[in-house]
Amino acid sequence: QVRLVESGGGLVQPGGSLRLSCAASESIFTFDFMAWYRQAPGKEREFIAQVTKGGGITTKDGMKGRFIISRDSTKNTIFLQMNSLKPEDTAVYLCRAQRYPGDTYWGQGTPVTVSS
User: Which residue from 94, 88, 79 is spatially nearest to 113, judged by alpha carbons?
Assistant: First the structure.
């Protein structure tokens, strides 16, 4: 039922910025939280940041200051602003939506490549 569609990825030089979007098929207020993850080839899926229904934000310690999550409820969309990008940030970036106690939804991901 729920669809999540990520966009905004692409090729960017080291030190550059990108803003990713995740558009949901339902009101974002029907989710207990929404979050961004990333997965590089051969690595485990990694948590980046989440925003709760009430607006509370949690960001992984190593990503604070460079990665900023936000939302626009009128567009059923969350965003991830990524700054000062490094080659190690290269990955597929995925959107997650959660309804407690056990309903979780994933988008297909948008690839980000940081390279000269």
Answer: 88
| CA proximity to 37, closest of 97, 85, 86, 83 | 97
**Cβ neighbours of residue 90 under 8 Å, at least 6 residues apart?**
40, 112, 113, 114, 115
Helix (H) or strand (E) holding 89: none
Per the DSSP assignment, residues forming a β-bridge with 71 are 78
- Residue identified by tokens 């900023």 is 68
- One digit per residue, the tens of pLDDT, for the chain of length 116 reads 899 999 999 999 999 999 999 999 999 999 999 999 999 999 999 999 999 999 999 999 989 999 999 999 999 999 999 999 999 999 999 999 999 988 999 999 999 999 99
Strand ranges (E), 40-87: 46-52, 57-59, 67-72, 77-82
SS3 of residue 62 by DSSP: helix
What's 14's DSSP letter?
A: T
